[in-house]
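pinned: reference chain
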Amino acid sequence: MRAKTLTKPQGILFDLDGTLLDTAKDLGETLNYVLSTLDMPSVSYEQYRPVASHGALGLLKLGLGENWQSYEVEKLRGIFLDYYLNNISTHTDFFAGMAETLEMLNQQNILWGVVTNKPAFLTDVLLTKYPEFKHSKINVSGDTLTVRKPDPEPLFHACKHMQIDPQQTWYVGDALRDIEAGNRACMQTFIANWGYTQDELPVEEWQADFIIEQPSELVSIIK
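pinned: its structure tokens
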């Protein structure tokens, strides 16, 4: 981790899948539905959970295996997205302690928002399922701009909208691209180690400022 002085933030930005919401089961069940249309074996929760934040293509690669390019991947991706949209919150919920953490931020008048690589047509539907998101000051999706994480521009865009200084902002995410984007935006970065953090590079080498094991740790740090 990087050594850096911690100050109370003007605002906190969060990744979505694997950080705020545990979407893995709905994404995995969608993958298994697609595989069933091909008469292929399903993938277990233990297998798909670490890949859940890699999007439809990442999950399809997992399910289809080494010869994934021999399939009509774009057609299968369309089937995947249609099914997921129609079943987007069947099993999804906040990670334990996260809803309470967001409420604490509201009580302390600390602004917060969402910056995700999830496409807007999915993000917008998903967030309406949970009333807590009415307090989010901005929701930036993977196609809101022409670039997405690990490019820092979506984070700068969120800060500009919220009228906060990026250097006085925290970014919390569970993927290496989240930490890369946050560091490039000169934010204080937090690894949500309860999420889908599997990567070739160990989290200790992601160059984050902090690794936290549960959302309530944010509360403790702010206090």
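why pinned: Residues 8 and 137 are 18 Å apart (CA to CA). The mean pLDDT is 95.
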